C-alpha cells in the first residue's frame, strides 16, 4: 500500500473514530454516575440525527441542524433519565440493562413508523476536498467531523476538569453517599450529565448523517454495540481512555477493511480485539 | 399441523430460556451471547448429519458436547471479567460465532446448510422435543435444589460472602456456564433437525437479546418464569401478527415497561 492510500484511509478512520468517541463519551459519563450500561444511548443518537435532518430540510442550514439535533437528543435523554433510569437506581444492573435494550429497539422502530423505513438524505456538505495534507485531500464533511469533535471534546474536558459541576460529577462517581452528605444533589447532577451526554450523542448523529449523507431508522444499531465496545476498551469511566479507544477503533477498522477486504465483518474485528484486550487487561486499556 | 409447529418452537424457546436462566438467573452471570451456543449445537448436528453421514442420535449428543465444551472454555475465560464487562464481551461472542459460521469452509457460507434429515414426523418430533424439555426442566430443578444451586444462589446474592463461607466460586460459575451452554446446544441440534435448514444470521445478537428478555420478563431464577417468558415472547410474533407494522416497537416497549414497573419479572419474587 502506498502512502497516499494510507493517508486517505487514516483520515477516514480518524473521522469515523472521533464520532465513535463522541458517542461513547456520553456512555462513559452516564456509566460513571449511574453504573448502568445505557444501551438506549444509541437511540438518542438516532433521534438527534432525525432532529438534525428535519431542521436541515426546513432551513438548509448546518448550524440549525446541529442545534436541533442536540436539542432533540437532550430532551429525549432527559425523558429517559426521568422516566426510566431514576426509578430503577439501586436495582441489580441487569434490570436497567435489559430495559435499556428494549428502549433502544422501540426508539429505532418508532423512528421507522414516524418517518418511514427509507434512508433520508442530509446533503449539508459536499464531499469535495477542501484541504490538502501533502497529496491527501480532506473533504468538507471530514473537516466538519474532525473539527466539531475536537471542539466538543475540549468543551467536555473544560466542563469535567475545570468547573464545579465537573467536580460534583467526579465526587458522585467516587462516592455517592459522601458526595450527597456534602450537599451535592444527585438527581439534579445526574440529569445534567444525561443532558450533556445526550447532546453529544445528538451532535454525533447529525455529524454522521452529514458525513455519509444519510439518516435512517436503524442507524443506531452499529453505534449501539460499537460504543459499548469502545467504552469497555477504554476502561469504563475513563474519559481519555474512551476518546483514545474510539479513535483507535476507527483507525483499525478503516485499515482492516483495506487489508482484509470484506473477508471478515468489521464487527467481528472490533469484538475480537475487545475480547483479546480484556483477556490481557480485564479493566480495559486505560482503566484502573 | 400449524399448532404443532408453533408448540414445538415454543418448547425449544423454553429449553433455551431455562438453559440461560441457569447462567444468568441462578448463577448471576449476565450473558448476551447465548444464541451462539444454540448455533454451535445447530451447526454441529447439521454438519454431522448432512456431510459426515452420522446418525441423528450420535449427532445430537455431539451437539450437546460441542456447545458444552465451547461453553466450558468461555466460562473459564469469562471468570476474569466483571459483571458489565462480561455482558459486553459476550455481545462479541455472537459476532465471532456468526463470522465463523459464515467463513469456515464446511458450513455453506451465507446459504447455510439445508436438507438436514429429520428422524420423525412433526408429531413424533414434537414428542422428542417435549422429552428434551422435561429433561431440561428436571435438570434445572435438580441444579437449583442441589448444593450447587444453593451455592449459586448464595453467589448471586454476595460473591464475597459466599466465598468466605467456603463456596468455590470459580468451579460453580464455570459449571453453571458450561451446563447452560450444553443445554443450548441440545436445543440447537433439535432445532436444526426440525427446521431442516439453517443460516448463520439465525444465531446472532438479536436472538440472544430475545432469550435474555424471555428470562427477565418471565422472572429470573425461577422455574416457571423463563417458561412463561418463552411462551409469551415466543408467541408474541404469532399473537401480534395483526399489528405486524408495530411489532418491534411493541416488543421493545414491553421489555422497557416490564423492567420499569415490575423489575422482578412477571412470576419473579420481589427481591
From TrEMBL, chain A:
Bilayer topology annotation: Multi-pass membrane protein
Q: Which residues are the signal sequence here?
A: none
Query: Which Gene Ontology cellular component terms are annotated?
Result: plasma membrane
**Short name of any one Pfam family annotated for the protein:** BPD_transp_2
Query: Where does the record say this protein resides?
Result: Cell membrane
Q: Which domain of life is it from?
A: Bacteria
| A Gene Ontology BP annotation from the UniProt entry | L-alanine transport
Q: Name one GO molecular function term.
A: L-valine transmembrane transporter activity
What family does the Swiss-Prot or TrEMBL record give for this protein?
Belongs to the binding-protein-dependent transport system permease family. LivHM subfamily.
- From the Swiss-Prot or TrEMBL record, give the protein name: ABC-type transporter, integral membrane subunit
Which species is listed as the source? Marinithermus hydrothermalis (strain DSM 14884 / JCM 11576 / T1)
UniProtKB/TrEMBL annotation, chain B:
- GO cellular component terms, semicolon-separated: plasma membrane
Q: What CDD domains does the annotation carry?
A: TM_PBP1_LivM_like
- Compartments in which it is found: Cell membrane
- Tell me where on the tree of life, at the top rank, the source sits: Bacteria
Q: What keywords is this UniProt entry annotated with?
A: Cell membrane, Membrane, Transmembrane, Transmembrane helix
In its UniProt record, a GO molecular function of this protein is:
branched-chain amino acid transmembrane transporter activity
Topology term for the membrane = Multi-pass membrane protein
**Keyword Metal-binding found:** no
Residue ranges spanning the membrane: these are 29-48, 60-79, 85-108, 120-140, 174-195, 207-233, 239-261
Q: A Pfam family in this protein?
A: BPD_transp_2
Main localisation:
membrane
UniProt-listed InterPro entries? ABC_transp_permease, LivM-like
What's the protein called, per UniProt? ABC-type transporter, integral membrane subunit
User: What organism does the record attribute this protein to?
Assistant: Marinithermus hydrothermalis (strain DSM 14884 / JCM 11576 / T1)
